[in-house]
Amino acid sequence: MDASRKALFQSPYVPTVEPPMTTGTTTSNNGMILTTIELENATQFYRSETEKELHSQHLQKIRENIQTLTADAWLYQDPDKLIGFQRVTTH
Fold it and tell me: Is residue 80 within 8 Å of 87, Cβ to Cβ?
């Protein structure tokens, strides 16, 4: 086989070790990605905690409203009685 033909069909040379500039850039990119992931996790955690706190506050306000309505219930007549509806009781 001709030497030029043999060289034409050989696999190209691929270096196995990255050049020093690429390695430093890769380390820098990995650090940035890690920082971004940590920031996203922290943001998600604090958002979740804030939503839980807001939900607890909302439930507390609802409980307070229920207690106020229950305490004032004796002041008002039954709405069904005022409208003229009668409650049907089943025995």
Answer: yes
